[in-house]
Amino acid sequence: MDTDHTERAEDAALDAYSRVVTGVAARVLPSVAALSVRTARGAGAGSAITVGTDGLLLTSAHVVQGARDGSAAFGDGTEARFRVVGADPLSDLAVLRVDEATVPPVELGDADTLRIGQLVVAVGNPMGLAGSVTAGVVSGLGRSLPARDGRVTRLIEDVIQTDAALNPGNSGGALADSAGRVIGVNTAVAGYGLGLAVPINATTRQIVDDLIANGRVRRAWLGVAGVPVPLPPEVAERTGQRRGLRVVEVVPGSPAGLAGIYLGDVILSAGGRSVRDGQGLQRLMLGPAIGTRLPVTVLRRGALVDVVAVPTELGR
């Protein structure tokens, strides 16, 4: 066996890996800030990502919980005061604004294109160590993370699981793909060797847009609860999906009740999108759905039935 050839091949592979990680670090690090906040609970710290040329930053809601403002320190040595534009505990996302934008924004990617085993790079400020970079792979997709806002509890869906080392202070920092596109916001350390990130996708982009425009996220309410169930083989073949959402509760007088959705119905689609579980329905319940006609297809006693619901605003 040619030992020299093997060593050269290993060195070349390591160099390729290193080039990717260093390239992502060079692209993303300048746009990640170290946050310092002070609330009634005491001082706190975290990270934030520059996402706009007009001073907009994206971070985790729990990093700025209870704060109206704070300070952001960037890799180029500049510091700026920030104010909280809006925070959404149910997605663990918050938007901040600094008075003067001194660094370029990151490029946002689409976490829906990720695959297990894909290389990712985490950039943040763990343990107060500014500008830290760790690398790993996507070790899981489609995870759920409970989030609470007062008495309301929801699941943050499609959470990214990674083995890139994350520590306190990483929250709000960037999770980037090998091209340097930010595809997640680091949100929690779930255990040894396990980190989680809120994905950047169409749903979270809508949440960010709502926070910028309104300072909060308007959510729609349908008034049903359900459990995932397998579909009969003939229905699965006809619809191209294997599971639906069996309705186990309909709130009297709710949009679902008024539309004629009944206990025992199995929701197959809503708004033209397949519904396979509660998260699939929850994904549709954002601001644009409020007050608009939402076509819903249900399976009822073996027949497909179409109804139209008009979701109302949650909490109103």
Overview of the molecule:
This protein has 316 residues and is of the alpha+beta class. 18% of the residues lie in helices and 43% in strands. It has five helices and 20 strands. The chain has helices at 3-28, 202-214, 233-239, 255-259, 278-282; strands at 32-39, 42-50, 56-59, 69-73, 79-88, 93-98, 119-124, 132-149, 152-162, 174-176, 182-191, 194-199, 220-221, 224-230, 243-250, 266-270, 273-274, 294-300, 303-309, 312-313. Strands 1-2-3-6-5-4 form a six-stranded antiparallel beta barrel. A six-stranded antiparallel β-barrel has the order 7-8-9-12-11-10. The longest helix has 26 residues, at 3-28. It is globular and about 65 Å long.
Portion of residues in helices? 10-25%
Q: Write the element-wise H/E pattern from the N-terminal end onward.
A: HEEEEEEEEEEEEHEEHEHEEHEEE
Q: Which structural class do you get from the secondary structure elements?
A: alpha+beta
Mean of all residue-level pLDDT scores: 87
Q: How widely separated are the two ends?
A: 73 Å
Low-confidence stretches: none
Quick one: overall form? globular
Cα-atom radius of gyration: 22 Å
Proportion of strand residues: 35-45%
Read across the widest sheet, the strand sequence of neighbours is 1-2-3-6-5-4
Number of distinct helices:
5
Describe the oligomeric state of these chains in a short phrase: single chain
Secondary structure: number of strands: 20
The largest pleated sheet is described as:
6 strands, antiparallel, barrel
